[in-house]
Amino acid sequence: MSCHHDRAKKQILIWKRFPVSVPSEAPLSTKRRWWVLAIVALTQLVVVLDGTIVNIALPQAQADLGLTDVERQWVVTAYALAFGALLLLGGRIADYWGRKRSFMVGMVGFGIASAYGGLIGTGIELIVARGLQGLFAALMAPAALAILTTTFPSGRERNTAFAVFGSIGGAGAAVGLVLGGVLTEFFSWRWCLLVNVPIVLVAMIAAAFLLRESKAEGDNKYDFLGTVLVAFGLGALVYGLTLAEHGWNSLGVWACLGAGVVLMALFFYSQSKIAQPLLPLRVIASRVRGGSLLLQMVSGSVMIGMMLYVTLHLQIVLGFSPLLAGVASLPLTIVISIVAPIATKLLPRIGPKPLMVAGPLIAAVGMVWLSGLTSTGGYLAEILPGMVLLGIGMAMLFVPMQNLALLGVEPHDAGAASAANTAAMQIGGSIGLGIYTALYTAGSASGTGFDALVSGYSAVFIGTAVALVVGSIIAATFIRGPKETLMPMGEPAEKVLHLG
Fold first, then answer.
1. How far apart are CA 230 and CA 428, in angstroms?
2. Which positions are tagged coiled coil (predicted)?
3. d(CA 69, CA 118)
4. Confidence class of residue 19 from pLDDT cuts 50, 70 and 90?
Protein backbone atom coordinates (compact mmCIF):
# COMPACT_ATOMS: atom_id res chain seq x y z
CA MET A 1 0.00 0.00 0.00
CA SER A 2 2.45 2.64 1.13
CA CYS A 3 5.06 1.36 -1.28
CA HIS A 4 3.06 3.21 -3.96
CA HIS A 5 3.39 6.43 -1.98
CA ASP A 6 7.11 5.76 -1.64
CA ARG A 7 7.43 5.13 -5.37
CA ALA A 8 5.62 8.35 -6.32
CA LYS A 9 7.71 10.43 -3.93
CA LYS A 10 10.92 8.91 -5.21
CA GLN A 11 10.04 9.66 -8.82
CA ILE A 12 9.25 13.24 -7.84
CA LEU A 13 12.58 13.60 -6.07
CA ILE A 14 14.49 12.59 -9.20
CA TRP A 15 12.73 15.01 -11.48
CA LYS A 16 13.01 17.88 -9.00
CA ARG A 17 16.75 17.41 -8.71
CA PHE A 18 17.38 16.63 -12.37
CA PRO A 19 14.91 18.62 -14.51
CA VAL A 20 14.76 17.69 -18.16
CA SER A 21 14.83 20.05 -21.12
CA VAL A 22 11.51 21.41 -22.33
CA PRO A 23 10.39 21.91 -25.91
CA SER A 24 11.36 25.13 -27.61
CA GLU A 25 7.71 26.01 -28.31
CA ALA A 26 5.91 28.78 -26.44
CA PRO A 27 5.08 27.70 -22.87
CA LEU A 28 1.56 26.61 -22.05
CA SER A 29 -0.79 29.06 -20.39
CA THR A 30 -1.15 28.80 -16.64
CA LYS A 31 -4.73 27.52 -16.88
CA ARG A 32 -3.77 24.87 -19.39
CA ARG A 33 -0.82 23.71 -17.26
CA TRP A 34 -3.11 23.07 -14.30
CA TRP A 35 -5.45 21.07 -16.50
CA VAL A 36 -2.45 18.99 -17.56
CA LEU A 37 -1.67 18.43 -13.88
CA ALA A 38 -5.24 17.22 -13.34
CA ILE A 39 -4.90 14.69 -16.17
CA VAL A 40 -1.55 13.37 -14.96
CA ALA A 41 -2.75 13.19 -11.34
CA LEU A 42 -5.81 11.22 -12.47
CA THR A 43 -3.53 8.78 -14.24
CA GLN A 44 -1.35 8.41 -11.16
CA LEU A 45 -4.48 7.71 -9.12
CA VAL A 46 -5.45 4.86 -11.46
CA VAL A 47 -1.99 3.25 -11.29
CA VAL A 48 -1.88 3.49 -7.48
CA LEU A 49 -5.47 2.34 -7.03
CA ASP A 50 -4.76 -0.88 -8.88
CA GLY A 51 -2.05 -1.76 -6.39
CA THR A 52 -4.54 -1.99 -3.50
CA ILE A 53 -8.11 -2.13 -4.80
CA VAL A 54 -7.82 -5.69 -6.13
CA ASN A 55 -6.59 -7.06 -2.78
CA ILE A 56 -9.96 -6.30 -1.20
CA ALA A 57 -11.80 -7.96 -4.12
CA LEU A 58 -9.72 -11.16 -4.17
CA PRO A 59 -11.73 -13.31 -1.72
CA GLN A 60 -14.95 -12.77 -3.70
CA ALA A 61 -13.17 -13.12 -7.05
CA GLN A 62 -11.64 -16.40 -5.88
CA ALA A 63 -15.02 -17.77 -4.83
CA ASP A 64 -16.73 -16.57 -8.01
CA LEU A 65 -14.13 -17.88 -10.46
CA GLY A 66 -12.98 -20.93 -8.49
CA LEU A 67 -9.38 -19.72 -8.29
CA THR A 68 -6.78 -21.89 -6.59
CA ASP A 69 -4.55 -20.24 -4.00
CA VAL A 70 -1.72 -20.10 -6.53
CA GLU A 71 -3.96 -18.48 -9.17
CA ARG A 72 -5.11 -16.00 -6.53
CA GLN A 73 -1.49 -15.04 -5.92
CA TRP A 74 -0.91 -14.58 -9.65
CA VAL A 75 -3.74 -12.03 -9.87
CA VAL A 76 -1.45 -9.75 -7.83
CA THR A 77 1.85 -11.05 -9.20
CA ALA A 78 0.96 -10.66 -12.89
CA TYR A 79 0.43 -6.91 -12.50
CA ALA A 80 3.53 -6.30 -10.39
CA LEU A 81 5.78 -8.51 -12.54
CA ALA A 82 4.73 -6.99 -15.87
CA PHE A 83 4.94 -3.47 -14.47
CA GLY A 84 8.35 -3.99 -12.88
CA ALA A 85 9.93 -5.93 -15.76
CA LEU A 86 8.78 -3.54 -18.51
CA LEU A 87 9.08 -0.19 -16.73
CA LEU A 88 12.62 0.48 -17.97
CA LEU A 89 11.57 -0.09 -21.58
CA GLY A 90 8.42 1.96 -21.06
CA GLY A 91 10.47 4.96 -20.00
CA ARG A 92 12.69 4.65 -23.08
CA ILE A 93 9.69 4.37 -25.40
CA ALA A 94 8.10 7.47 -23.86
CA ASP A 95 11.27 9.50 -24.32
CA TYR A 96 12.03 8.33 -27.86
CA TRP A 97 8.62 7.68 -29.43
CA GLY A 98 6.89 10.67 -27.85
CA ARG A 99 5.51 11.25 -24.35
CA LYS A 100 1.99 12.24 -25.36
CA ARG A 101 1.73 9.37 -27.83
CA SER A 102 3.02 6.86 -25.26
CA PHE A 103 0.70 8.27 -22.61
CA MET A 104 -2.35 7.97 -24.87
CA VAL A 105 -1.52 4.42 -26.00
CA GLY A 106 -0.81 3.40 -22.40
CA MET A 107 -4.14 4.80 -21.22
CA VAL A 108 -6.13 3.16 -24.02
CA GLY A 109 -4.45 -0.20 -23.39
CA PHE A 110 -4.92 0.08 -19.63
CA GLY A 111 -8.61 0.88 -20.07
CA ILE A 112 -9.16 -2.05 -22.45
CA ALA A 113 -7.29 -4.43 -20.11
CA SER A 114 -9.39 -3.22 -17.18
CA ALA A 115 -12.63 -3.73 -19.10
CA TYR A 116 -11.49 -7.20 -20.16
CA GLY A 117 -10.61 -8.10 -16.56
CA GLY A 118 -14.01 -6.97 -15.33
CA LEU A 119 -15.91 -9.05 -17.88
CA ILE A 120 -13.92 -12.30 -17.94
CA GLY A 121 -15.25 -15.70 -16.95
CA THR A 122 -12.18 -17.65 -15.82
CA GLY A 123 -9.26 -17.20 -13.47
CA ILE A 124 -6.67 -17.51 -16.24
CA GLU A 125 -8.33 -14.67 -18.12
CA LEU A 126 -8.22 -12.50 -15.00
CA ILE A 127 -4.49 -13.16 -14.61
CA VAL A 128 -3.92 -12.27 -18.28
CA ALA A 129 -5.92 -9.06 -17.84
CA ARG A 130 -3.83 -8.09 -14.81
CA GLY A 131 -0.64 -8.73 -16.74
CA LEU A 132 -1.89 -6.49 -19.56
CA GLN A 133 -2.71 -3.78 -17.02
CA GLY A 134 0.88 -3.95 -15.77
CA LEU A 135 2.25 -3.82 -19.31
CA PHE A 136 0.34 -0.66 -20.23
CA ALA A 137 0.98 0.91 -16.80
CA ALA A 138 4.71 0.51 -17.52
CA LEU A 139 4.21 2.66 -20.62
CA MET A 140 1.76 5.14 -19.11
CA ALA A 141 3.42 5.91 -15.76
CA PRO A 142 6.85 7.14 -16.97
CA ALA A 143 5.21 9.09 -19.80
CA ALA A 144 2.91 10.83 -17.32
CA LEU A 145 5.79 11.85 -15.08
CA ALA A 146 7.83 13.13 -18.03
CA ILE A 147 4.84 15.19 -19.22
CA LEU A 148 4.50 16.71 -15.77
CA THR A 149 8.20 17.57 -15.73
CA THR A 150 8.18 19.31 -19.10
CA THR A 151 4.93 21.14 -18.30
CA PHE A 152 6.29 22.58 -15.03
CA PRO A 153 10.01 23.17 -15.73
CA SER A 154 10.81 25.37 -12.71
CA GLY A 155 9.60 27.73 -10.00
CA ARG A 156 6.91 27.63 -7.35
CA GLU A 157 4.34 26.12 -9.72
CA ARG A 158 6.66 23.15 -10.23
CA ASN A 159 6.91 22.53 -6.50
CA THR A 160 3.14 22.75 -6.13
CA ALA A 161 2.55 20.41 -9.06
CA PHE A 162 4.88 17.76 -7.70
CA ALA A 163 3.41 18.10 -4.21
CA VAL A 164 -0.04 17.39 -5.65
CA PHE A 165 1.32 14.45 -7.65
CA GLY A 166 3.01 12.99 -4.56
CA SER A 167 -0.09 13.45 -2.42
CA ILE A 168 -2.12 11.51 -4.97
CA GLY A 169 0.39 8.69 -4.66
CA GLY A 170 -0.07 8.52 -0.90
CA ALA A 171 -3.82 9.07 -0.76
CA GLY A 172 -4.48 6.77 -3.71
CA ALA A 173 -3.39 3.66 -1.82
CA ALA A 174 -5.81 4.45 1.02
CA VAL A 175 -8.59 5.38 -1.42
CA GLY A 176 -8.05 2.05 -3.18
CA LEU A 177 -8.64 0.08 0.02
CA VAL A 178 -11.88 1.89 0.86
CA LEU A 179 -13.15 2.12 -2.73
CA GLY A 180 -12.40 -1.57 -3.26
CA GLY A 181 -14.45 -2.36 -0.17
CA VAL A 182 -17.38 -0.22 -1.32
CA LEU A 183 -17.44 -1.61 -4.87
CA THR A 184 -17.03 -5.23 -3.78
CA GLU A 185 -19.61 -5.07 -1.01
CA PHE A 186 -22.35 -3.09 -2.73
CA PHE A 187 -21.78 -3.97 -6.40
CA SER A 188 -19.31 -6.69 -7.47
CA TRP A 189 -15.61 -7.43 -7.32
CA ARG A 190 -15.62 -6.87 -11.10
CA TRP A 191 -16.15 -3.14 -10.57
CA CYS A 192 -12.73 -2.94 -8.92
CA LEU A 193 -11.43 -3.33 -12.47
CA LEU A 194 -14.26 -1.71 -14.41
CA VAL A 195 -13.99 1.50 -12.36
CA ASN A 196 -10.82 2.29 -14.31
CA VAL A 197 -12.73 2.56 -17.60
CA PRO A 198 -14.63 5.83 -17.00
CA ILE A 199 -11.57 7.39 -15.37
CA VAL A 200 -9.41 6.48 -18.36
CA LEU A 201 -12.03 7.75 -20.82
CA VAL A 202 -12.19 11.15 -19.15
CA ALA A 203 -8.39 11.43 -18.95
CA MET A 204 -7.93 10.28 -22.54
CA ILE A 205 -10.37 12.81 -24.02
CA ALA A 206 -8.84 15.65 -22.02
CA ALA A 207 -5.30 14.55 -22.89
CA ALA A 208 -6.04 14.53 -26.61
CA PHE A 209 -6.85 18.26 -26.50
CA LEU A 210 -4.57 19.54 -23.76
CA LEU A 211 -1.26 17.66 -23.95
CA ARG A 212 1.64 18.71 -26.17
CA GLU A 213 3.99 16.21 -27.74
CA SER A 214 7.65 16.11 -26.67
CA LYS A 215 10.48 13.62 -27.04
CA ALA A 216 14.18 13.24 -26.32
CA GLU A 217 16.70 14.21 -28.97
CA GLY A 218 19.74 12.27 -30.17
CA ASP A 219 20.47 8.64 -31.00
CA ASN A 220 17.44 6.65 -29.88
CA LYS A 221 17.86 2.89 -29.68
CA TYR A 222 15.78 0.35 -27.79
CA ASP A 223 17.35 -2.51 -25.87
CA PHE A 224 14.86 -5.21 -26.87
CA LEU A 225 17.29 -8.02 -26.06
CA GLY A 226 17.66 -6.73 -22.50
CA THR A 227 13.89 -6.44 -22.19
CA VAL A 228 13.34 -10.04 -23.28
CA LEU A 229 16.07 -11.36 -20.98
CA VAL A 230 14.84 -9.51 -17.88
CA ALA A 231 11.15 -10.28 -18.51
CA PHE A 232 11.66 -14.01 -19.10
CA GLY A 233 14.32 -14.25 -16.39
CA LEU A 234 12.09 -12.75 -13.73
CA GLY A 235 9.10 -14.72 -15.00
CA ALA A 236 11.03 -17.99 -14.73
CA LEU A 237 12.14 -17.17 -11.17
CA VAL A 238 8.63 -16.31 -10.02
CA TYR A 239 7.07 -19.32 -11.76
CA GLY A 240 9.67 -21.62 -10.24
CA LEU A 241 8.86 -20.29 -6.77
CA THR A 242 5.17 -20.82 -7.48
CA LEU A 243 5.81 -24.45 -8.40
CA ALA A 244 7.54 -24.90 -5.05
CA GLU A 245 4.12 -25.09 -3.37
CA HIS A 246 4.19 -28.77 -4.38
CA GLY A 247 7.61 -29.27 -2.83
CA TRP A 248 11.20 -28.23 -3.49
CA ASN A 249 12.27 -31.66 -4.76
CA SER A 250 10.51 -31.14 -8.11
CA LEU A 251 12.62 -31.03 -11.26
CA GLY A 252 10.37 -28.30 -12.64
CA VAL A 253 11.11 -26.02 -9.68
CA TRP A 254 14.86 -26.17 -10.11
CA ALA A 255 14.68 -26.04 -13.91
CA CYS A 256 12.70 -22.79 -13.77
CA LEU A 257 14.87 -21.28 -11.04
CA GLY A 258 18.02 -22.27 -12.91
CA ALA A 259 16.71 -20.82 -16.17
CA GLY A 260 15.78 -17.61 -14.34
CA VAL A 261 19.25 -17.24 -12.84
CA VAL A 262 20.93 -17.85 -16.22
CA LEU A 263 18.67 -15.36 -18.03
CA MET A 264 19.21 -12.69 -15.39
CA ALA A 265 22.98 -13.24 -15.56
CA LEU A 266 22.79 -12.81 -19.34
CA PHE A 267 20.74 -9.65 -18.83
CA PHE A 268 23.39 -8.03 -16.64
CA TYR A 269 26.13 -9.18 -19.02
CA SER A 270 24.28 -7.65 -21.97
CA GLN A 271 23.89 -4.36 -20.11
CA SER A 272 27.66 -4.05 -19.91
CA LYS A 273 28.13 -4.57 -23.66
CA ILE A 274 25.67 -2.25 -25.41
CA ALA A 275 25.77 1.51 -25.90
CA GLN A 276 22.27 2.32 -24.65
CA PRO A 277 21.31 -0.31 -22.07
CA LEU A 278 18.01 -0.48 -20.25
CA LEU A 279 19.88 -0.35 -16.96
CA PRO A 280 23.34 1.28 -17.02
CA LEU A 281 25.34 -0.80 -14.57
CA ARG A 282 26.98 2.33 -13.16
CA VAL A 283 23.61 3.16 -11.61
CA ILE A 284 23.73 0.09 -9.35
CA ALA A 285 27.53 -0.25 -9.09
CA SER A 286 27.68 2.04 -6.05
CA ARG A 287 27.62 0.04 -2.84
CA VAL A 288 25.13 2.41 -1.24
CA ARG A 289 22.78 2.54 -4.24
CA GLY A 290 23.05 -1.23 -4.71
CA GLY A 291 22.11 -1.75 -1.07
CA SER A 292 19.19 0.63 -1.48
CA LEU A 293 18.00 -1.38 -4.49
CA LEU A 294 18.06 -4.59 -2.46
CA LEU A 295 16.15 -2.86 0.33
CA GLN A 296 13.54 -1.73 -2.20
CA MET A 297 13.01 -5.36 -3.14
CA VAL A 298 12.68 -6.39 0.51
CA SER A 299 10.22 -3.62 1.31
CA GLY A 300 8.18 -4.39 -1.82
CA SER A 301 7.93 -8.06 -0.90
CA VAL A 302 6.88 -7.27 2.67
CA MET A 303 4.29 -4.61 1.86
CA ILE A 304 2.63 -6.48 -1.01
CA GLY A 305 2.73 -9.86 0.73
CA MET A 306 1.59 -8.58 4.10
CA MET A 307 -1.37 -6.62 2.72
CA LEU A 308 -2.62 -9.58 0.66
CA TYR A 309 -2.63 -12.06 3.52
CA VAL A 310 -3.92 -9.65 6.16
CA THR A 311 -6.84 -8.84 3.85
CA LEU A 312 -7.55 -12.53 3.38
CA HIS A 313 -7.50 -13.12 7.14
CA LEU A 314 -9.82 -10.20 7.83
CA GLN A 315 -12.43 -11.34 5.33
CA ILE A 316 -12.20 -15.13 5.35
CA VAL A 317 -11.38 -15.89 8.99
CA LEU A 318 -12.68 -12.88 10.92
CA GLY A 319 -15.67 -12.46 8.62
CA PHE A 320 -15.19 -8.75 7.91
CA SER A 321 -17.15 -7.31 5.03
CA PRO A 322 -15.03 -5.99 2.13
CA LEU A 323 -15.69 -2.40 3.21
CA LEU A 324 -14.78 -3.06 6.84
CA ALA A 325 -11.65 -4.95 5.73
CA GLY A 326 -10.59 -1.92 3.68
CA VAL A 327 -11.11 0.44 6.59
CA ALA A 328 -9.33 -1.96 8.96
CA SER A 329 -6.26 -1.84 6.68
CA LEU A 330 -5.97 1.96 6.84
CA PRO A 331 -3.99 2.23 10.13
CA LEU A 332 -0.84 1.14 8.30
CA THR A 333 -1.08 4.09 5.91
CA ILE A 334 -2.01 6.48 8.72
CA VAL A 335 0.95 5.46 10.89
CA ILE A 336 3.39 5.79 7.99
CA SER A 337 2.00 9.26 7.23
CA ILE A 338 2.52 10.31 10.85
CA VAL A 339 5.98 8.82 11.36
CA ALA A 340 7.50 9.80 7.97
CA PRO A 341 7.76 13.56 8.78
CA ILE A 342 9.38 12.69 12.13
CA ALA A 343 11.91 10.46 10.40
CA THR A 344 12.55 13.24 7.87
CA LYS A 345 13.49 15.63 10.68
CA LEU A 346 15.74 13.02 12.29
CA LEU A 347 17.54 12.21 9.05
CA PRO A 348 19.99 15.18 8.97
CA ARG A 349 20.72 14.76 12.68
CA ILE A 350 21.55 11.08 12.90
CA GLY A 351 22.05 10.15 9.25
CA PRO A 352 20.28 7.44 7.26
CA LYS A 353 22.01 4.31 8.53
CA PRO A 354 20.52 4.17 12.08
CA LEU A 355 17.01 4.60 10.65
CA MET A 356 17.57 1.97 7.97
CA VAL A 357 18.97 -0.58 10.41
CA ALA A 358 16.41 -0.04 13.19
CA GLY A 359 13.34 0.45 10.98
CA PRO A 360 13.23 -3.08 9.51
CA LEU A 361 13.82 -4.59 12.96
CA ILE A 362 10.83 -2.70 14.42
CA ALA A 363 8.75 -3.77 11.43
CA ALA A 364 9.91 -7.37 11.95
CA VAL A 365 8.59 -7.26 15.53
CA GLY A 366 5.25 -6.18 14.08
CA MET A 367 5.22 -9.14 11.72
CA VAL A 368 6.10 -11.54 14.53
CA TRP A 369 3.15 -10.10 16.44
CA LEU A 370 0.90 -10.75 13.44
CA SER A 371 2.18 -14.31 13.19
CA GLY A 372 0.54 -15.00 16.57
CA LEU A 373 -2.97 -14.55 15.20
CA THR A 374 -5.62 -17.21 15.87
CA SER A 375 -8.90 -18.22 14.29
CA THR A 376 -10.85 -16.90 17.29
CA GLY A 377 -8.83 -13.77 18.10
CA GLY A 378 -9.93 -10.18 17.55
CA TYR A 379 -8.67 -7.39 15.32
CA LEU A 380 -7.71 -4.97 18.11
CA ALA A 381 -5.55 -7.47 19.98
CA GLU A 382 -4.00 -9.50 17.17
CA ILE A 383 -3.90 -7.32 14.04
CA LEU A 384 -3.79 -3.61 14.94
CA PRO A 385 -0.61 -3.65 17.12
CA GLY A 386 1.31 -5.47 14.39
CA MET A 387 0.16 -2.96 11.79
CA VAL A 388 1.24 -0.04 13.97
CA LEU A 389 4.71 -1.49 14.53
CA LEU A 390 5.06 -2.30 10.84
CA GLY A 391 4.05 1.27 9.92
CA ILE A 392 6.59 2.79 12.30
CA GLY A 393 9.41 0.60 11.00
CA MET A 394 8.61 1.01 7.32
CA ALA A 395 8.34 4.81 7.61
CA MET A 396 11.82 4.85 9.19
CA LEU A 397 13.10 2.83 6.22
CA PHE A 398 11.23 4.61 3.41
CA VAL A 399 12.47 8.14 4.15
CA PRO A 400 16.26 7.55 3.96
CA MET A 401 15.87 4.87 1.29
CA GLN A 402 14.40 7.46 -1.09
CA ASN A 403 17.46 9.65 -0.60
CA LEU A 404 20.09 6.93 -1.01
CA ALA A 405 18.44 5.49 -4.12
CA LEU A 406 19.52 8.64 -5.99
CA LEU A 407 22.71 9.55 -4.17
CA GLY A 408 25.40 10.59 -6.65
CA VAL A 409 23.37 9.73 -9.75
CA GLU A 410 24.40 11.73 -12.80
CA PRO A 411 21.63 13.76 -14.50
CA HIS A 412 21.68 11.62 -17.66
CA ASP A 413 21.13 8.50 -15.52
CA ALA A 414 18.31 9.98 -13.43
CA GLY A 415 15.51 8.39 -15.43
CA ALA A 416 17.14 4.96 -15.38
CA ALA A 417 17.76 5.23 -11.62
CA SER A 418 14.12 6.16 -11.02
CA ALA A 419 12.83 3.28 -13.12
CA ALA A 420 15.27 0.81 -11.54
CA ASN A 421 14.15 1.63 -8.02
CA THR A 422 10.48 1.63 -8.90
CA ALA A 423 10.91 -1.68 -10.71
CA ALA A 424 12.84 -3.15 -7.77
CA MET A 425 9.86 -2.70 -5.46
CA GLN A 426 7.46 -4.34 -7.92
CA ILE A 427 9.88 -7.17 -8.69
CA GLY A 428 10.53 -7.70 -5.00
CA GLY A 429 6.79 -7.99 -4.49
CA SER A 430 6.50 -10.53 -7.32
CA ILE A 431 9.32 -12.74 -6.07
CA GLY A 432 8.21 -12.31 -2.46
CA LEU A 433 4.66 -13.42 -3.23
CA GLY A 434 6.00 -16.55 -4.88
CA ILE A 435 7.98 -17.41 -1.74
CA TYR A 436 5.16 -16.48 0.64
CA THR A 437 2.64 -18.58 -1.30
CA ALA A 438 4.92 -21.59 -0.90
CA LEU A 439 5.19 -20.84 2.83
CA TYR A 440 1.42 -20.45 3.09
CA THR A 441 0.83 -23.78 1.35
CA ALA A 442 3.31 -25.57 3.61
CA GLY A 443 1.93 -23.92 6.75
CA SER A 444 -1.69 -24.71 6.00
CA ALA A 445 -1.13 -28.33 4.98
CA SER A 446 -1.25 -29.79 8.49
CA GLY A 447 -4.58 -28.44 9.71
CA THR A 448 -8.21 -28.15 8.71
CA GLY A 449 -10.72 -25.34 8.37
CA PHE A 450 -9.87 -21.87 9.68
CA ASP A 451 -7.03 -23.27 11.79
CA ALA A 452 -5.26 -24.40 8.60
CA LEU A 453 -5.69 -20.98 7.02
CA VAL A 454 -4.35 -19.25 10.13
CA SER A 455 -1.33 -21.55 10.22
CA GLY A 456 -0.61 -20.62 6.61
CA TYR A 457 -0.95 -16.88 7.29
CA SER A 458 1.33 -17.20 10.33
CA ALA A 459 3.99 -18.87 8.18
CA VAL A 460 3.78 -15.97 5.72
CA PHE A 461 4.19 -13.37 8.46
CA ILE A 462 7.19 -15.20 9.90
CA GLY A 463 8.64 -15.20 6.38
CA THR A 464 8.18 -11.43 6.09
CA ALA A 465 9.82 -10.98 9.50
CA VAL A 466 12.86 -12.94 8.29
CA ALA A 467 12.97 -10.79 5.13
CA LEU A 468 12.97 -7.63 7.27
CA VAL A 469 15.81 -8.90 9.44
CA VAL A 470 17.76 -9.61 6.25
CA GLY A 471 16.93 -6.05 5.17
CA SER A 472 18.40 -4.68 8.39
CA ILE A 473 21.57 -6.70 7.80
CA ILE A 474 21.76 -5.34 4.23
CA ALA A 475 21.49 -1.79 5.57
CA ALA A 476 24.20 -2.40 8.16
CA THR A 477 26.49 -3.93 5.53
CA PHE A 478 25.98 -1.70 2.50
CA ILE A 479 25.21 1.73 3.97
CA ARG A 480 28.71 2.94 4.82
CA GLY A 481 30.34 6.32 5.22
CA PRO A 482 29.94 9.55 7.24
CA LYS A 483 26.38 10.81 7.41
CA GLU A 484 27.39 13.99 5.57
CA THR A 485 28.28 11.95 2.47
CA LEU A 486 24.95 10.10 2.62
CA MET A 487 22.78 13.22 2.60
CA PRO A 488 21.36 15.00 -0.47
CA MET A 489 23.46 17.89 -1.69
CA GLY A 490 22.15 21.30 -2.56
CA GLU A 491 18.91 21.20 -0.52
CA PRO A 492 18.03 20.45 3.09
CA ALA A 493 16.82 16.94 3.59
CA GLU A 494 13.44 18.19 4.83
CA LYS A 495 12.81 20.02 1.58
CA VAL A 496 13.94 17.19 -0.65
CA LEU A 497 12.20 14.34 1.13
CA HIS A 498 9.02 15.83 2.54
CA LEU A 499 6.96 16.48 -0.54
CA GLY A 500 3.49 17.05 0.75
1. 14
2. none
3. 20
4. very low
